[in-house]
Each structure stands twice: as structure tokens, then as C-alpha cells.
Protein 1
Amino acid sequence: MELTAKSEALAEVPVRFGYRFSQWLLTGGFKLLFGLKVDGLVNIPLSGPFILASSHKSWFDPPIVGSICPRELFYAAKRELFSNLILGPIVRYHNAIPVARTGYDRKVLVQLGQALSAGYGIIIFPEGTRFLDDKLHPPRAGVGMLALKHRVPIVPAFISGSVRIRRQLWRRRLRVRFGRPFTVEELGLRDAEGREGYRAVASAVMCRIAETGGVEPPATP
């Protein structure tokens, strides 16, 4: 999708029919098969750019969160998916941005920033990769960089039950909670800058994710 910068007043972007239809199918499937329940959906801004910062335990997390959100979102997906004949066109249509699985990929942060400038929401998983131990882990600095540069609302999200999701066929405990939006100004970090500032904001975001899920925040590295 071509991105065009918008002023904040013109930042509401309509959801494409195909995108909305796929959301409906996925949400229905997750509810029917795994007992998906959602709390705090009212916390998602209905217009304007925002960062949806989520915990990450499963490959299913992006479609789970993306299908629930009433907005079109941009997100990073591993580069290998884009060469797949079936999945490649699907992830492209759903605003995925290819990212290398290892190392620092500045280009992805630039493209996610462009999506924010165009009035869209983005999904970002501050931990950088999925963890199967059902605990939160220290974040990477990317979410802090985006938050400080673009000064948009940040919505924390906590997903539970997506680890080994097939178990939810009978346990039916798949849950997503969205917390109250906040800004770097509310965190008292409006003047943070540089690498240490990015890390401070990212750590504060992880604490809000932990608070949303009612779990312990990650230990400080």
C-alpha cells in the first residue's frame, strides 16, 4: 500500500473491504476454535496514528491482535514469508513489512514510522521475538525510538493462551487485553533522547504491558 503523509486532523483512514473481511473471518475462527475473549477494545483510538505494543509468545499473535483491532495496522514480518507463493501475497495485502530475523533492521523502523506519519496504527512487539516461557522479557529499543520520534499514543496489549495454541481447543483460554493509551509525556520521558532514552521508553512500555496483563514486568538486564 502506498503511504502518504497526513496531518493529524486528516489521519482517519478507511479500512479496505478485503482487509475487514479477513478480520471478520479470523476473529470468528479464533473465537469458535479457541474461545478468544477480548478486554479493553475501547482503548484502541478510532482515528489518528498510534502504536500497539504487545507481548509476544506465538506466531499466531500478529493475526490474533490484527484481526481484533478495528483499524488497519502495519507490522513487521520475517522476510522469508514474502517469498512464499501462498503467504507472500497475503502478508503484503495486510500491510506487512519484511524484516531480517537477526540483527538491527533500521529500514523497518523507518517504514513503520512512515505508516504512523500517514495516519495508520502499527503493531510492534517490543521483545523483538517470541518467547515460549510465558514470561515477559526485556525489550529492544525500537519501540522507544518510534514513540519518541512520532509522539503518538501507545496502547499496551497482553496476549495469553497463544503459546501452544492447540491446547485452547479444549481449554478455551485465549485472551487479549488492551490497556489504556499513554504517551511518552505521561511517562515523564518527553526529554529522553539517544540510545539510553530509547531504552528507557521501551522499558516503561514493557511495564505498561505487564500491568495490562497483571503479570510481573521483565527483569532489568
Protein 2
Amino acid sequence: MADEDVLNVIVCDPSGVQRQILARSLTSAGYHVYGASTASEALALIRSGVGDILMTGLELPDSSGFELCWQIKCEPETAHVHTMVLSAHTDIHRLTNALDAGADDFLRKPLVEAEFHARMRAASRIVRLQQRLANEARRDALTGVANRRSFDASLGRAMKEASAQGKPLSVSILDLDKFKLVNDTYGHTAGDMVLVEIARRARDFLRDNETFGRLGGEEFAFLLPDQALEQAKARLDEFHQIIADTPVDIDTSAPLPVTASFGVATLYGDADMEDASALMDRADTALYAAKDAGRNRVCAA
């Protein structure tokens, strides 16, 4: 199993012995295991992005397994975590209460090894399916970059971070110049090839903390954290040149020259915060200024 495919399991139980027993069994089956002795420790791990599966006892020092599952499922950022409750109780009401509280599965102790691993395999299939569906929901179907919904979510998070840290945040909207002419002249298949190639170049160009997404049609956007206006403009000038310098191969006799117009706007974290739509509107206004100035350029708001 490739390391990036390994699922993370949080074992939450006040008993160190119980955690060690479960950790050994899970590690031998190929999972990464994190231990927590309290509900608050488990929640901290999950909120940090660690957990794919939570395995918890019912009796915890600071809460109950019921409450922990309920809290995880109530928060949109953690609701994807697959929750499994372990208990020695045989009362059917315990089972139904656990499931009603948000548990996805219920295991009775002492665990039967074969059943335990079968349940874990089933949980893993569910988690991976959810991950695949979530990833597909965030990606533009044609180009594979972030779609509009995903880009907007990233922008919202980045604005909160910029506000909290007092750092600049730049956003750019780019539009491929005269793209309708490409579709009309060479066909929509050729147009799609252009979009896919521009997205590929953008992915190669991106730094780790940057985001690139497709807003719709031939319109894309960059999210550039920690970059003031001049820094962002210089970086976008570089990508603008990458597009202009290399024509796109569309399976015709000659590669197709492509250019793009860019508008960029910056939000400064120590200034009065504006909302995301206002920031995007400023970038869009700068984009239209680039088009009015003759296209194939970067204009700053």
C-alpha cells in the first residue's frame, strides 16, 4: 500500500493498555495510529486534519463516546471522519444511542480479531469512497484544477488567515484572450485542449501555498497568500509570459498561439477587511482594464 493511501486511525480510550492493544493490531494491518486518552485530545487531532477513522470507548474522563461522536458529526470540517464506538455493554439501547449520536459503527468488547479487521476493511472502503467523491466535488471535471466552489472556499479560509496574521493576500482573475474565436475556428475539442494545457502549466507553476482554479468557461483564478500587490503582479507577469511564449498543440498542422489577460487585487490583513466578493470584484475590474488596454497583460487594481 502506498504511503499516501494509508489511513489514519485515532484510538481514544483512557486505558493505555487498551490503546496499545488496538494500536498493535491496527499497525500490523497497515494503518497509522494515533492515541488519545480524552475526548478533547481526540478532537484536537481531528481538527488538525489527522483523523480518517475514530475508534472510541464510551466512558471517557472528560466526556462520553456519544458526545464525542455527536460533536464530530456536527462540525462540517470534521463530519467526514468515520466513527466507531467500542463497548463491553450488550444493551441494545447502547447500540442505538451510539448510532443515533453519530457513530458509524459499533463494536462489542472483547473484540473478535477476524470480525474487527473485517469491520476495519469495510470502514476503509467507505472512507476512501467518501474521499474520492469529495475530491471529485472539488475539482473541475475538464481541467482537474479547483472548481469555483472549491476556489471560493479556499479564498474564504485564506482571508480569515490574512486577517488573523496581518498579512497580505492577493487574488487574480485571468481570461484567455479571444477564446470564442478558438472554439469557432478549430472546434470545442481544440478549445478544451487549450484549457487543459493552461491548467497543466498553472499546476506546474504553483507554489505549495498557492491555489489555482477554474471559475467557468475560459476564466481562471489564482490565490496568492502572503504576497503584496507588486509581488503578486511580478509573479503573474511570469505566468503570463509562460502562456504567451509557448503555443498550444491542438493536433493541427501548427501549434496555436494563446495569450491571456490578468487582473490582480490585494487585501492587506491589517486593513479593514472586505468580503470575498468585493475582493474578486476588484480583481475583475483590473482584468477588464487589461482587456481595454489591448489584452495580453497583467493589470493591478
Protein 3
Amino acid sequence: MQKGRQILSPERFKITLQRLASQIIENYSSNELINVVGIQEKGVVLAERLIAIIHKAYPKQKIQLGKLDITFYRDDFRMRQTPLKANATQMDFNIDGKKILLVDDVLYTGRTIQAAMSSLQDFGRVERIELLTMVDRRFNRHLPIMTDYTGIEVDAVDEAYVSVEWEHLEGEDKVLIYSKK
């Protein structure tokens, strides 16, 4: 892949995270438990960052974090050239009858979110699922899935790859777009 073009700078990235955290707080009461489930791997990173921002501003806000691996729920699991690497799932709370905030870094075709919802069913029947993504690639959806909380919307051709990069993993918080050609 070629060098990516930055579409969200570190400064704007920080502002976007702050806005997403504020939107979450606006939609939950101060005594309501927020059940956050991050999709492994980078959805968990985003969820952890948002929780840290919320706890800094609202230290008494109750939040639970689950980490969800969807590897074996993907519809392309057996179609890939190289095997997918599974991550640990960590759901230390009961999700039956609860509102879940599902978090992932990029919403593209919707297949990852569909796999995550299927995986969540193995843990119980939720009351409602809300979706938060850092990037929504609006015009590439294969399934009728949309976000409740969106960092940025990106209109990119199918041949493009959008990457959310994190300071502690890639050296800087930013969003890049790459050409696959």
C-alpha cells in the first residue's frame, strides 16, 4: 500500500473524541450504567479512550467495558487467503435486557457490525444496541446498518482503505486514507 493521505489530524482527532464522549454523556443519565462493548482490536482501543475521557470529566459515571472478538462470526472467515487471528473476548457483565453501546473504529460494509450483533446474542438478549464509530464510510454499505454516534463521515471509493491510527500503537492519533492500487 502507498503512503496514506491524512484526513483527520491529531488535533481534530482529539476534538472528535471529546465530542463523541460528550454525546454519550448527553444521552445517558448520570446514574445510568453505560455498558460499552468494543469490537477487537481497534474498537476496544476507541472504547477505552472514550471511557478515559468520560471518567476524567465525570468521575462518578458508572461504565462497564466488554471486549468482543468476532473472528468466528465473520461471513468471510473461511474465504480468506491467510487465517484470521482471534483475540480474547472479555464480557464480565450480563447483557440481558441492557442497552449496549457497541464501538468500532470504521463502519464500512456493515458486515463486522452484523458479526458483532450475532456474537452478542450468545451472551444474552439485549434491550437495545447503539453503534459508535470513529469513521463512517457512508456509501459502501452492504447491509442496512448505520451509526448512532459518528466521529467523521468519509466518502471514499471501494478501492480506498481508511485507517484509524492510535498514538500508543502507530505513534500518532490520526485517520488516513490509502489507495489500494
